[in-house]
Specification:
By secondary structure, the chain is α/β, with parallel strands linked by helices. The chain is built from 13 helices and eight strands. The protein has helices at residues 7-11, 58-62, 87-100, 113-124, 144-159, 163-173, 182-192, 197-204, 210-216, 220-224, 243-252, 268-271, 273-284; strands at 16-23, 26-33, 40-44, 66-70, 106-111, 129-135, 230-235, 257-261.
Amino acid sequence: MVEHESVWSDLQGVPFEQGYVDAGGVRTRYLRAGDPALPPLVFLHGSGGHAEAYVRNLEAHAGHFSTWAIDMLGHGYTGKPGHPIEVRHYVEHLIAFLDAVGAERTALSGESLGGWVAARAAADHPDRIERLVLNTAGGSQADLQVMRRIRDLSMAAAENPTWETVQARIVWLMADKSKGYDDVVASRQRVYRQPGFAAAMSDIMALQDPQIRARNLLGPAEYGAIKAPTLVLWTSDDPTADVGEGRRIASMIPGARFEVMNGCGHWPQYEDATTFDRLHLDFLLER
């Protein structure tokens, strides 16, 4: 018997709120848990994603942080800018969000695109980032095959959000292909069925265009400018880049810690939340 996995059951018993805040004129959706008086922690999801990427991590972190998972610019139920979105646009939106919620300094944890944005934010705004986690982060290379795969799967799901197209996009993220991930699929399908979302996805996919990507890539100068203590977290089965790429990113960040999670794909925070939360909290709470 296959056990059903539910976004709601991940949140049952967890004191949390869902809401919206005006971040520099952009209506921005968030999930939040933890005492507001605690230090802030912000989670950033990947391309085409939304805050539900972190439903399995809110409870563990809420005991230590005022924990936010947001829908990034153009994603989920957050406002859509109506133009191709580059990394600087995401960073501007993130800083506006931090200003809106009164977070002068924050711990920041990003997965995939979220890691790309988090690294750029840490390099450009060192006064705002207390600690940094880069989780299977993008932004360090341009693999044309991977870029094409992300774009094809994402656009197929947004232009025709059937169960099959959305599920294909979700399963691609995971190491374990035997599961259906039904509740995550249902949640994302609802997002993708919003009017006009195919156009929004096209704007999100701008970073999969080789020319646009090239001017947004991070290298030794950008990674080397990161002052915050940093954890680079990679996985054994990441579909976007191998462990060596994660290790290369860590080598460019002064003093960065590097960890590998086995048996996980591009969503280790979901596939093995227990291990992720332990590694994450061990790093974030280290003094």
